[in-house]
């Protein structure tokens, strides 16, 4: 019976809905709740466990988001994943929660390469930089190639707490963003004939790194679940680059079943998974999904960044290497230069240590939830219900799918002072735009949508 597997302790600081979620998810993973098992209704569960309905509903919602259970209208909640998929020894059951002359100046920025100035605590960041600059004995020397120890120690605690990444400071390498870290990583992974698999239409800047490093590229098709596993097996890839936090098609995080399948691929094909966790901690409609790395630290290379949490101009990222690759890195580390500013690394360590990043994260989640809701509402009210809108939380953007009217809307919008990005649509009769909401002030969202509508219909 499901109640046999529920362990709740009201004396510990972990919220009750998280304890309930964890108990049920572990029971499913262990196979104690087989696929198809019907769970108690929210009302019955709350009464039997003397919990509020909100607590049970929150736990069920998180389980649905991660794909453990499914809600069938008028029938109830059912276990949706076969726990036997987790029976392989490599899965960790104890993972933690964790412009040109013809263009007008940009008036409305619906791009994805900036942040709203009101979200940046520049004054506080400046004070931390000044504090580091006062320590002359520290800043007159080169930084550590692997990254400053203090930052690596703080990042190991932070990534465990917010993303469920299992590592120590010894497994972390700091760099000036994702691309420089990928270049370094390719040097550790490269062998003759190596092939990197990446989802078609995925992170083009990452793909360029693999091309520059003479990797063969295998484009993997995606579906509503994420990566097409069958097409992955058909490649000769030994490296897979993927972002489990945001499906390219649905914008939703990767379901637990496919996470198991990707890890099984890595073990069966002796492959490595590069987990690009771009903004994974910024999800705001549900609790962030724990990182894939927390399920298997031997086959997953985790890459995180602070650009959208602080300032895009502060180029600090980090990667967590498995033990085998860490040994290769240490053998070469004396030949590498650190690409991230030592001063900014030490300032960031203090910023995180004093709890400022946690406060910023909570503030950003609230702001981006408001912005995304307003943008989606404005698009529906202005364009009507015939358009399709997909929210991508991890990339802080929405995809707007319109009928193709034969116009280059991106170019026309740029000339009118509106920044948007055209992306390839799946159907030839569609025209798709990626609209970022991180950089635009909230009061400019409605005018920007109205200008876009005028351009589309002109």
Kindly describe this structure.
- With 458 residues, the protein is of the alpha/beta class.
- It folds into 3 domains: 85 residues, Orthogonal Bundle (Arc Repressor Mutant, subunit A); 109 residues, Aspartate Aminotransferase, domain 1; 235 residues, Aspartate Aminotransferase, domain 2, CATH 3.40.640.
- Helix content is 38%, strand content 16%.
- It contains 15 helices and 17 strands.
- The strands form 5 sheets. Strands 4-12-11-10-9-5-6 form a 7-stranded mixed beta sheet, sandwiched between helices. It has a 4-stranded antiparallel beta sheet with strand order 13-14-17-16, covered by helices on one side.
- Strand 13 and strand 14 form a beta hairpin.
- Helix 1 packs across helix 3 and helix 2 crosses helix 3.
- The longest helix is centred in the last third of the chain and has 28 residues.
- It is globular, with a radius of gyration of 23 Å.
- 40% of the residues are buried.
- About 3% of the residues have low confidence.
